[in-house]
Amino acid sequence: MLNRLEMLRIFMAAAETGSFKQAAIHLGISPQAVTRAIQELERLQGEMLFHRNTRQIRITDFGEQLASRAGESLRQVDLLFAPQGQRQNAEFEGVVHLTAPKALGRIGMVPVVADVAMRHPGLRIDLDLSDTPAHVIDERIDIGVRFGLLRDSRFVARKVAKHAFHVVGTPALIERVGLPTHVRDLAALPTTVMHDVTTGRPWPWLFKGGQRFTPAQPVFSSNDSEAERDAVLSGLAFGQIAGFLADRHIAAGELVPVLQPFAPEPWDLCVYRPQTGPVPKRVRVIFDALVRALADPGAQAARP
Questions:
Q1: 287 near 273, Cβ under 8 Å?
Q2: 3-state SS assignment for residue 202
Q3: Strand bridging mode 205-206 / 220-222
Q4: Measuring CA to CA, how many Å separate 126 from each of 16, 65, 114, 144, 295?
Q5: What are the angstrom distances between the C-alpha of 66 and each of 5, 59, 73, 196?
Q6: CA distance 65 to 276
Q7: 3-state helix, strand, coil in the chain (%, to 5)
Q8: What is the C-alpha separation between 304 and 301, in angstroms, rounded?
Q9: Strand pairing partners for 274?
Q10: How many Cβ atoms are within 10 Å of 93's Cβ, its own excluded?
Q11: Torsion of Cα atoms, 300 then 129 then 291 then 116, to 10°
């Protein structure tokens, strides 16, 4: 009969690999032993931990909650019996789940988290890039980055910077179609637009005083902000582009900001995490690194 600690280890291996067979290989035991341990743990918990069929397993909502609690507890138990040097290193071991907007994550976050991970070899990064904000609790995210101030009391949020949004076009485009002097002029000009992936509708362009403009017939639409930026850089159309994507091209003269008197207020950029008691060191070290790095918008604008 397995003790409860071993059952939890087997359960965590199955949760992390998504397979009873892979968990058995990882632990050096038989798949039947994994199945028996999961069944016994389900009996003790009084809940299903995995949905099963002949082809795959899928962890249940209750199983995800148990995995979130058990993973950290098992690491703490292991630390009690590790040599001093290993204890110090092990404090940073484990997965950190992050979410961020696509372009900002690639440009501003990947270099930062990669640097931290290289300094702590036991650290593993799981970065979800999406322009749809993730629900931190439901998605089991440890750290999130988003535009707009987060006012939810369940989260610890740090406002780290402000980012402008520019309406821009290339010099060649302006020479070809003319320079807009008012927001209403955009209706007669070629424009780009970003899609809201949750609704399929285009995101409106935002301007000073709450004014909005939604391109009715954009010549280019995408769900990726870097693709939209590249379309604007090609001279195809005007677009409203975030500063961290546009600033270096504006400085180089490749893009020209227009309608500046109508520019919206810059958006806050926040780094946040769930407010759930003690913060593991692996989460803290990445949270602090992101706060420092993202507080310097110039560093992001300088990246290719």
A1: yes
A2: strand
A3: unpaired
A4: 12, 18, 11, 12, 22
A5: 13, 10, 11, 33
A6: 13
A7: 45, 20, 30
A8: 8
A9: 155
A10: 18
A11: -90
| Cα 121 to Cα 89, 116, 118, 125, 180, distances in angstroms | 8, 9, 6, 11, 53
Q: Which residue has the tokens 């902000």?
A: 225
Q: How far is residue 15's CA from residue 41's CA, in Å, rounded to a whole number?
A: 13
Q: Using CA atoms, how far apart are residues 90 and 5, in angstroms rounded to an integer?
A: 19
Rounded Cα–Cα distance for residues 85 and 68 (Å): 26
pLDDT tens-digit map of 137-186 = 556 789 999 887 676 777 888 999 999 999 999 999 999 999 999 999 99
Q: How many CB atoms lie within 10 A of CB 138?
A: 9
Whether this model's pTM surpasses 0.85 = no
Task: Record the tokens describing residue 228, joined without a space.
Answer: 């939209």
Give the position of tokens 């320079």: 179
CA-wise closest residue to 239 among 175, 303, 194? 194
Pair 271, 287: CB distance under 8 Å: yes
> What is the biggest distance separating any 2 CA atoms in the chain, rounded to whole angstroms?
79
User: What domains are defined for the chain?
Assistant: 4-81 (1.10.10.10), 91-159+268-301 (3.40.190.10), 165-262 (3.40.190.10)
**E-assigned strands of the chain?**
50-52, 57-59, 94-100, 123-129, 143-147, 155-163, 165-169, 192-194, 205-206, 212-213, 220-222, 239-242, 256-258, 267-274
User: Do the beta carbons of residue 101 and residue 228 sit within 8 Å?
Assistant: no
| Interval 198-237: pLDDT, tens | 788 899 999 999 999 999 999 999 989 999 999 999 999 9
Residue 118 near residue 92, CB atoms below 8 Å: no
